[in-house]
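Quick question, first post here. What does this chain look like in 3D?
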Amino acid sequence: MPRSRTIAVRRSREAPSPKGAAADTLTEQAYRLIEEQIVTLSLKPGDVLSEQLLSATLKIGRTPIREALQRLAREGLVAILPRKGILVADVNPRSQLLLLEVRREVERLLCRAAAERGTPEQRRQMQELADGMDQAAKTGDDVVFMRLDLDLNRLLVEAAHNDFATRTMKLLSGLSRRFWYMHYRVAGDLPLCARLHANEARAIAKGDAEAAARASDKLMDYVERFTRGTV
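> Answer (accepted):
Ran it through. Tokens below.
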């Protein structure tokens, strides 16, 4: 039976969030905190999660914790098993390449749509995220980078205004982020990855759909090379 672990919530290195963003609900707060712990491997594959323990540690009620865990289960980051509990899902490196086939097409579509349909406020937030990614490239701070990446993913799907692509992207992003964090120290290049994300966000901020699509392809080219280097 996998061991149970207490979630360790890090608050010392807060990544900047886009100014003017709506305050998170308790469920969203719980989701972001638990997702970060899973993606950054503080909670490892096979670890058992307890609603009661998470609620006490995060000081968030059981209902938002349960809703966050259900969302994480839909995204493939946890598995809810009858009579066994809630487990952090395993990582399958070969499945990652299949995931990337889908992510490449969906991310290009979302970037193009976000550049065309984003509001002035969303474009401003995209520029802020691009600046934050540039700073993360300089500092090499992996946790700040991962938080900015989550904010970028969320803003990307909001600005694209395509519910079908959004649902698909939500199933892919957490798995992709965890895989990258698991292997980047050996096979990755954090400054390059951050700059590629910044280029994508900057093109969307400028409303240049073709440049956003090209930036997305360059990012996916890097992610695919990185992934193949780990398999």
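The radius of gyration is 17 Å.
The chain has two domains: 26-88, 93-228.
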